[in-house]
Amino acid sequence: MNPTFTRVWLVLTCLVFCTIHTTWGQTATAALGGTVVSVTGSPVAGAAVTAIHLPTGLRRAAATDSAGIFSIPDALVGGPFAVQVTQPSFRTQVITNVFLSADKAVQLSIALAPDVVQVGTRRIDRTVLESAVPVDVIDMRELLATGPQTDLTQILNYSVPSFNSTRQTSADGADHVDPSSLRGLSPDQMLVLVNGKRRHTTALINLLGSRGVGNVGYDLNTVSSNAIDRIEVLRDGAAAQYGSDAIAGVMNINLRADNKGGNVLLSTGITSAGDGLSTLFSLNKGFKLGQKGFLNLTGDVDYRGATTRQYSRSLNSWPVFSSNRASEDSALAANGKTYRDFEQVNGDAKIRNYRLLYNLGAPLSNKVSFYSFGGFNYRRGRAVAPWVLPSAQPADIVDSIFPLGYQPNINTRIHDASGAAGITASLGQWKLDVSHVVGLNRMHYDVSNTLNSTLGTASPTQFDAGGLQFRQNVTNATLSRLFPQVLAGTNVAFGTEYRTENYLIFAGEEASWKDYGRGAAGASGGAQGFIGFDPAAAIEGNRNNIGGFVDVEADITKKWTIGTAVRFENYSDFGSAFIYKLNTRLQLAKFLSVRAGYNTGFRAPSLQQALYRQLTLLPVNNGVVYTGIFNNQSEVTRAAGIPALQPEKSRNFSAGLILTPSPALTFTVDAYQIAIDDRIILSGLLGQGITPALDAALTQANATNAQFFTNAVNTRTQGLDLVASYRRPVGRGNFLASLAANFNRNTIRSIDVPTAFAKLQSDDDLGNNYVDQRQLSLIETGNPKSKLILNTSYEVGKFNLLVRNVRYGQVSSYDFNFDPLAEGSYYLVFKPRLTTDLQLSYKPKQALQLTAGVNNLFNVQPNTIAEAARNGNPPIGFKTQAEFDAYFQNKYGQPSYLPYDFDILPYHSHQMNFNGTFFYLKAVYNFGL
User: Fold this and answer.
1) Confidence band for 7, pLDDT divided at 50, 70 and 90
2) Fewest CB atoms within 10 Å of the CB: 29, 244, 662, 864?
3) 12 vs 404, which has greater pLDDT?
4) Nearest to residue 152, comparing CAs of 265, 269, 253, 270?
């Protein structure tokens, strides 16, 4: 550990205990006590009661007994105090302006409201521990105020083990939009709701990254974390309740609904390498509308700097001038350059975000209320493509513009907007909820520091490359009613939903995609680094669907609940789907409950998958390869005999138990199995020689290889989720420990291959399969096999100390095979990693909280690609890397450059962030307290 950090840590620790000792040791004391009950009058045992002396910030803590009684006999005299009461399954309550005197004990009577969940049930009185399905509840107010992360995806990545998200690098658009997944499945198999309403997806399809290749997900970072009250993550299939996509689970983002107060948040941090500067300024404010209404507004600005790690250049992979060392050194010297002048930016993209969000609710009468919410996000991003160098692409060097090569910038402008409006109305005993939600995501590319080499000296260095747009409209109506006298209480809900979607690709300027034929022989057409969308790729498509559902949840007895839901949906582009869900929860003892469920589900092919088309330039060490991604309407697709896309279908079984052996300890464990048929993936790189019809179509399309979206794989996912939490008063403070873990295994049950490609799907020709090695391995082992998060914290006086440990399980996958080589590619194994975070928070006064912390204290990084290759295997069964290198030299007449880009792009974005240690400071001021 750094000596300076050690000295600072010792000083802070001394300050904590010295403050506690001197303050509590010299002051007269008073008694505080009372009872804690639920709103129904039942005593709440094990509730943590903390008395906070606001002038000093000093705290005394106690826990309620079996009768709900607590006692704090030696609190400070005077005040004011804030008394905070917390207990799992109840909303935290704070009583303010409590004053104590030495001659009279103060007795409080506190009633806690249940902390109900909105996802996985349509009852309005279900708590987390009473839910028949596993739900994680994330308190964003607490996490955002102290944690190192500010992006929503990264906050969740460090909070929910079954949730995974890593920033992508050198993956075109995915550098700007973090893909995320649940339970090791694809990004598009998780449904996201905001305030219980369906959120729109991004327009982007992930194509080159390590996560979610061929999938469309949600851009969670368009939502300001400071605008969120809490997030509920349902870890179970719920398509019968919420519709398409909810195969792995559902995330519901609940926005703040405060009608007063607010906060100002400032966060900044930087990596130990001195790059990746991150800053966030955010402002939240609540306003009262009328007597009972509210308007909550949030605006923020954040910046994230680019990062680069372990850059190097290998003569085998990416030399600048020559793969001969003498020639390389001579050319570098002649031009007054070193490899540092050709540094490849290979980490996080540079990002600027501007966000505005609102949440509004107001009663229109005693029986009717109006609500609305929405927001806007503008993002400007800059990622970087690999250098264009004289060694690999001499024809794409224009001496009068970039004589020594250039590193293209892939820039994006993302506009994301959403708005929702609805009413809730009481119709006798029934409750009606009618709403309409509109969402839009637009991603516009512009490429800079590059050129179209076929224009020669007339080439510009910046291009408008076109872009993508997705728009969604959802109209929903739901009727629900609780029948308290039917059995022990039965809730019935039914409703309908109508959804329309629009997707378009708009072309870039002509110079961004056209081959003018005026450059050097062999020059590549279009903007180098990212070819713009051409008129043939420009397309617009629409579809609509209508669905209806019935949802019944019945308490057979007070200890036994059964829930069921059925849903029918009809899509304009592929037909209909009928699915259902059944779950149950049984309380066997006061401290033990069990739950289980079975559901069927589906995921409709996204419009993006059905319509996307683009010609992509993939640089390899001896030139470029043009790969076309062709949609279902393409002549190339029809010539290849690729079937039209159909929906994915799933069957999900889960079983678990909830154990509460004491009020201070809760423990849940849930096992699951998810079988998915007809999963949609992106095919392998299919080139010449398969069928004459495909050969002719590729030539006509000016593509070397083709890829297609196809229902090709049937999979099985099995896993286990564990969540444990322990909290109790220790000494003069509160101790909290929580452990959450996910263990996950994906298996490919079978592969469906069209007849024309059957001969390719064999072990004899791994580099040219219908579904290639990499795609299959990303499905099976591309997510961590396990992920464990251990948090331990102690809060005393004005201070709170937290230590977080995160263990990422092993990840493995085949490397890219851009050429494609018949031998296939390296099998890369990224071994498990354990990181440690440390943070110290200080409250000089109740409204102000200051936090200093270190993320990844010991600078743990994942295996590099070169290390992962040594951990794994070389292609086609060679025993050693040296043996394969000799074979490669003999067959291809040049040294092996595999794994691809191991020198300039040393990491894959599989497992965890590779930026290393990150130091940060945060300040939050809460006004209106």
Assistant:
1) very low
2) 662
3) 404
4) 253
The alpha carbon of 317 is separated from its chain's Cα centroid by a whole number of angstroms, namely 32
Cα distances from 337 to residues 309, 312, 340, 342, 606, in angstroms, run 20, 15, 8, 8, 48
Does domain 135-311+346-927 sit in CATH 2.40.170.20? yes
Homologous superfamily (CATH) of 28-112 is: Carboxypeptidase-like, regulatory domain (2.60.40.1120)
Please answer whether residues 247 and 648 qualify as being in contact, where contact means their C-beta atoms are separated by less than 8 angstroms: yes
Strand partners, 464: 446
Q: What is the CA radius of gyration of the chain?
A: 29
**For position 93, what pLDDT does the model report?**
80
Q: Please, what sign has the CA dihedral across residues 75, 81, 86, 90? A: positive
Question: Are 61 and 729 spatial neighbours (Cβ–Cβ below 8 Å)?
Answer: yes
What percentage of residues in the chain have a pLDDT greater than 90? 64
**Structural tokens at position 450:** 């590059």
Mean pLDDT of the chain: 89
pLDDT in tens, 366-399: 999 999 999 999 999 999 999 999 998 999 999 9
Find, among 499, 501, 577, 575, the residue nearest to 543 by Cα: 501
DSSP3 helix / strand / coil % (the chain, rounded to 5): 15, 50, 35
Within this chain, domains 28-112 and 135-311+346-927 share the same CATH topology: no
848: its two tokens: 């102000």
pLDDT tens column, 329-360: 999 999 999 999 999 999 999 999 999 999 99
Which residues does 882 contact at the CB level (< 8 Å), separation at least 6?
none
Q: Hey, is 500 helix, strand or coil?
A: strand
Task: Place 418 in a pLDDT band, splitting at 50, 70 and 90.
Answer: very high
Q: Which residues contact 423 (CB under 8 A, 6 or more apart)?
A: 364, 368, 369, 370, 371, 432, 433, 434, 435
3-class DSSP string for 597-635: EEEEEEECCCHHHHHCCEEEEEEECCEEEEEEEECCCCH
Domain ranges of the chain: 28-112, 135-311+346-927
What is the rounded CA–CA span in Å between residue 274 and residue 248?
A: 38
What's the pLDDT score for residue 127? 60
CA distance to 196, 420, 470, per residue, from 549 (Å): 16, 21, 26
Cβ density class 599-634: b for 16+ within 10 Å, e for less: bbbbbbbbbbbbbbbbbbbbbbbeebbbbbbbbbeb
Cα 681 to the center of its chain, rounded Å: 20
Q: Check if the beta carbon of residue 143 is closer than 8 Å to that of residue 155.
A: yes
Tell me the pLDDT band of 307, cut-offs 50, 70 and 90: very high
Summarize pLDDT for 240-250 with one digit per residue, the tens: 999 999 999 99
**Residue whose tokens read 């890219």:** 816
Cα 690 from Cα 711, distance rounded (Å): 20
Structure tokens at 856: 């990844």
374 by DSSP, 3-state: which? strand
Cβ-count burial 97-127 (b if 16+ within 10 Å, e if not): ebebeeeebbebebebebbbbbbbbbbeebb
Output the pTM of the full model.
Answer: 0.88
- b/e per residue, 514-550, with b = 16+ CB within 10 A? bbbeebeeebbbbbbbbbbbbeebebebebebbbebe
Placement of tokens 């966060």 in the chain: 267
Name the token pair of 586. 């049984």
DSSP structural state of residue 873: B
| Buried b / exposed e along 180-215 (16+ C-beta atoms within 10 A) | bbbbbbbbbbbbbbbbbbbbbbbbbbbbbbbbbbbb
Please answer whether residues 113 and 889 qualify as being in contact, where contact means their C-beta atoms are separated by less than 8 angstroms.
no
For residues 443 and 202, is the Cβ–Cβ distance under 8 A?
yes
Longest dimension (CA), the chain: 98
